[in-house]
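User: Amino acid ABC transporter permease, Amycolatopsis rhabdoformis:
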Amino acid sequence: MGDFLHSFFDIHQILAVLPSLLGEGLRNTLIIASLALVLGLVVGLLLALLLISPRWWLRLPARVYVDVFRGLPAIVTVSLIGIGLPSAGVRLFGQSPMGYAILAVGLINAAYIAEIFRSGIQSVPAGQTEAGRSLGMSHLSTQLLVVVPQGIRNVLPALANQFIVAVKESSLVYLLGLAVGERELYFIAQQAQSISYNSSSFVAAGLVYIVFTVPLTHLVNWFDKRLREGRRPTGGGGGDATAAPPPLVPVGATGFEAGA
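Assistant: Predicted structure for Amino acid ABC transporter permease:
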């Protein structure tokens, strides 16, 4: 029992590694996750628009991308991008592994975000598209100005949850050998463990992940519940002050009106 406690709950080891975890580790983890999520949102939205395109030759490459990046283990994708690209002479970010880490995690998240956006966009009633087209808008303009904004609102909790996933997936970039100053939580813990052969540093890193992600998870669940309650119809003829307002569609070039 004593050996077990010493291996996983050595207070001196935890206190020794905690400043690096809370300073350098947490900062770089959030940088990687945040920038990767921004990249994932941009690429994911583009992929979602291609996935719902009526033209098969636009849907096909988007579907292949989503299936490949969702099918590959994240650790394989990180290795292919962070190690494979520089080895092949494709040095997009010079010698800095941080850029490759953000690119890898961002492209992984883009595949999942694309499906989130697609489901959100397709959940918008077809009448919204018809209303936009009846105003003389093109299919693309209708999607971008009418359907997509409503679809994004429908999936905001799922997108927030994807950020939590990106935070945890950032631990895989330790494979790229981040330099001092660029290390994330797991890499710092792994280096400390390799020196002391004590797993308490991993426990400390796990605690930091938990303290950050668990409250954020509950916040996302609360936000999702509020959105669902806001969209819940009420019985009788009375209105509900908390109900979501009807969606808006563009009217000419000057204003908006409530959608059907």
